[in-house]
Amino acid sequence: KRNPSKVLKHGKSKSGYLIVSFSVDSIKSNHSVHRLVARAFIPNESNKPQVNHKDGNKHNNCLENLEWVTKSENMLHAYKIGLGKNQYIK
């Protein structure tokens, strides 16, 4: 008998984040690991929409490396640590 709810696979998104794919009642969905960790363990009282990797490493999903941020906070952080300079500053 098949289990209708299971983790199907893990991998990387097109943007380089680690993801897991779930199937619940035969409906598949992809989830970013860093967002799952943040939602489970980091309070978000200010209801900020994005999760930032403090060290800039998309594969470092340790709790201490993640924080909730706004889009502008995330972009400013990326600029300050040298990520995406060409993307944000022209």
Describe this structure in words.
- The protein is an alpha+beta fold.
- It has 3 helices and 5 strands; from the N terminus they run E-E-E-H-E-E-H-H.
- The chain has helices at 33-41, 71-80, 85-88; strands spanning 6-12, 18-24, 27-32, 50-53, 66-69.
- A hairpin with a 2-residue loop joins strand 2 (18-24) and strand 3.
- Count the beta strands: 5
Q: From the alpha carbons, calculate the radius of gyration and give it in angstroms.
A: 15 Å
What integer is the average pLDDT?
Answer: 89
Distance between the amino and carboxyl termini: 57 Å
Helix content: 25-40%
**SSE class:** alpha+beta
Number of helices: 3
- Unreliable runs: none
State the main characteristics.
three-stranded antiparallel sheet, two-stranded antiparallel sheet, alpha+beta, 3 helices, 90 residues
Helices and strands in order:
Blueprint: E1 6-12, E2 18-24, E3 27-32, H1 33-41, E4 50-53, E5 66-69, H2 71-80, H3 85-88
Would you summarize the structure shown here?
This protein has helices at about 35-40, 70-80, 85-90, and strands at about 5-10, 20-25, 25-30, 50-55, 65-70. The protein has about 90 residues and is an alpha+beta fold.
